[in-house]
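INTERNAL AUDIT FORM
Audit reference: QA-55
Scope: verify that the stored structure record matches its stored sequence.
Auditor: D.O.
Record contents follow.
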Amino acid sequence: MRPYLFLGLAATLLAGCKKDDPAAGLPAATHTGANTAGCLINGQPFVATGFGSGPGRVAGMGGGFACDSAYYLRLNGKIGSSEGAIHLFLNSFPRFKNRMLAGVYILDKDTPYMPAAISSQCLSYAVFLPNDNSQELFGTTSKAVGSVNITHVDEVNRIVSGTFEFTAVSSLDPTKTLRVTSGRFDRQQ
């Protein structure tokens, strides 16, 4: 009878540990066009729920296909009491000219970011923009790298889903970085 007591206690403890997982507050990694997204930024949940109110409200997600060889995704949300946005830009040219295909996109190049440059000048990148009027942004570079894994593409229903993670460096202080982990999105355009 004691082994059953031990197994029951172990199962209860394991179930309790799952609740303490910081990624538990993120949306599920789906591929149905649910228009959900989230990640952990330095271990804190960031969910694309938008911010602001009234006519000036910023939507939780935006972006889509651009210039035949690029996919752009904007996630707007909160981290703690602060607001911010993550931009993922995937340039698939010349690898997948005129198509977005499932696969891993590496973010490891020094590149200009939009809107400072036009999309044809940009290589694949990720940035985090705090919504605090500081003019600071955190972006991937050749030294602060990451990846986006497109896990599902449905061209008929215009659904793109995937996961992402990256390290980004401050545009104002190169010693300051942030780490984005457990990223996932499911967007129907």
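Auditor finding: record pair retrieved intact. The CA atoms of residues 23 and 45 lie 7 Å apart.
Action required: none
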